[in-house]
Amino acid sequence: YQFTHPGKKLLFMGDEFGQGKEWDSTGILDWYVLEYPLHQGMQRLVRDLNRLYRSEPALYRYEFEWRGFEWIDCNDAQQSVISFLRSGNEGEQLLVVINLTPVPRYDYRIGAPHGGSYREVLNTDAEIYGGSNVGNGSGPIEAQDGPWMGRSHSLSLTLPPLSAVVLAPVPAV
Fold this sequence. Notes:
The chain has two helices and nine strands; from the N terminus they run ααβββββββββ. It has about 170 residues and is mainly β.
């Protein structure tokens, strides 16, 4: 979540691989935990989040300006889901949807800023990160016409448990 939210990013020593205890300046980091698959997955996720942040101007171009962030929905307390839009210059947009429960959400509808296709560019529940691999796959997700959540279009998504999904518009050919 932190990597997609506006502002500078901060990781404490050991967070990049899931250090099990608080960092102690008199000792060393528990690098041995990288022998375990879940810690390797955490390290891969942080690597991929860093790559996404560097490759998507929507995440950094206006990180301290109001025009770089817009809520899609921050009121779904019943299902514990939040969604927002990150924007850069023309055509630089990412939709971020976060499911804060251990329950997958199927056919979860969110507002989309425009029609066309979207693709999942990051799913923190992917198997390579140690997750259950619930998500929207690698194919395109088509926006549906009709207003939803104050937007002109909507997307029907599968939201993995305790995860974030980042979607990018597919450029029209």
